[in-house]
Amino acid sequence: MTHTHAISAHDLTKTYTFHQQRAGLGGALKSLVRRKYETRLAVDRVTFAIEPGEVVGLLGPNGAGKTTTLKMLSGLLYKTSGDLDVLGHTPSDRKHDYLRRIALVMGQKTMLWWDVPAMESLLLHKEMYGLSTVEFERNVAELAELLDVQDLLNVQVRKTSLGERMKLELMAALVHGPEILFLDEPTIGLDVVAKARVRSFLADVNRLRGTTILITSHDMDDIEALCSRVMIIDHGRLQFDGALDDLVRTAQPRKLVRATYATPVDVGPLTAFEGVSAVEVDGLTVRLEADRARTGQILEQLTRLGPLVDLDVADADVEEIMRDLFLRRGEAS
Amino acid sequence: MIRNLRILRRMVAAEIAQQSIYRGAWVIFMLANICTPLISLLIWRTALANGAQLPVDERYITTYFVLLGIATMTTSSWMAGFLANDIRLGKLSSWMVRPASLLLGFVANNLSEKFLKVFALIPMLGVVWWIFRDSMNVPPGFGRWALFVVTLVLGAILVFTIDILIAAFAFWMDDVSALVQARVIIGSVLSGAVVPLALMPEWSRGFINYQPYRYTVSFPVEIVAGNLSSTELMTGLAVQIGYVVAVGLLARFVWAAGIRAYSAVGA
């Protein structure tokens, strides 16, 4: 396995064993005497490689195996089988040399000490990661400015809002300058303003520091804003690995077109035109779906229908695409 | 090692800052810590005054219970339940991805809380000592006091390691609170925190003298309060060190196996 990749996984597999217990007193008493154990395949022979500096989105419905994958990559879980190499290390060895080069931010778990200001946690990280005072102060100043949290560093963490706390979490995770940042639902529960701030911060971190970012999120806006590449995991299997645009093109090969005219138009000729479908007329506005390959010709046709006032061409909403994709796979299985 | 000590120092400072917020709580803790042995002392002194035939005299009983508060405080550990909870709920994860020992946070919590408690306990202990000063065994010289301090530190390490061992079972068991509770109840009796081990029945002597909990509280106090011979002192110290090493190795083994089984639940 080569070390030129930041992350390299080959046939990565993880199974869990757990016991099933029926609800109620009877189930509880029965489980005292006899337990039924089951093995669940959480990640099934997943193979991929991520290059340094890439921002990759790991997507999938709940229970698909994406967080388990993230936990194996960050060293929290041992793999059941397969090969895994992150920055030349086997993550589950949890060697300090490895842990110094990564960071994991979990949207629902905190790294910060609750009852003291965030600065105490940052100072703890200074010691943990062996940062010099100069390096520490420079990083803190840079991150605080990017995140706009200068005034929050000396406030008790429990007195900050959810959005502020996530920004402080990100700061604590990045103060040592990790080469890889694993993010598990970093914007969960945040309002739109805080989400936008976190996204733009992460984009800056990737651009300025070249940090490799692997992110799981159910918020497609996160993925669209940050990831040029996505990997879709479902039922533990890697179902798609490629550019977000390719995913959109493959899953939804049509563009959404909306044309608004100054006067009512006859859409008759349009319906007969190749590559046009789902034509709808709403007053002076015409909506349709156009084959990507024929979008240019279809737009030309639209200009001939009447006096055009407004024209809008868009890809289908990624959120909708993902929802359709997961629903289709769910039904298929 | 030096890096871990620097991390520990920083953690202790943060813990002290954190715990100082709840200053009322540790004063109450300390009052409870001193009141229990004090009540026991008064009961046993009353029993002796009423002609009870005990294998130890009043001076032993008095010294024992006056020192008991500081011994139980110094060697106590409360981390098993918290650590087990962190394992069960997946909270250990945020420490596992950072380059430091997972237990440093618990060591820091233990040391800082004891550091703060000392400030409340010493004055209280001073008052009790002054009240009973004429009926206590105070060994001459520095030797026994030094040994008292050494065995207290070893006792603290032993209790802490037993806690790690018990908490580590949470890697496989859904709930270890019964184990934690059993450790507290059995430990409080067998350590001598409730009744001096010298008062245990003669037939149990062999077991009582060599079971591990004696070396968590009773043995250090016996060094000052009792008449242990040099041979008994050295044997006791060797047994205590043996338990620290043995339980330490066992805890390390179980912990390492547990980490492999860790399921890091929750997102």
Automatic annotation (TrEMBL), chain A:
GO terms for molecular function: ATP binding; ATP hydrolysis activity. The keyword ATP-binding applies. Residues 27-260 form the ABC transporter domain. One of its GO terms (cellular component) is plasma membrane. Its main location: membrane. It is found in: Cell membrane. GO terms for biological process: response to antibiotic. This is ATP-binding cassette domain-containing protein.
TrEMBL record, chain B:
It holds the Pfam family ABC2_membrane_6. It comes from the Bacteria. Coiled coil: none annotated. The chain crosses the membrane at residues 21-44, 64-84, 115-132, 144-172, 184-203, 237-255. Keywords: Membrane, Transmembrane, Transmembrane helix. This is ABC transporter permease. It comes from Kribbella antibiotica.
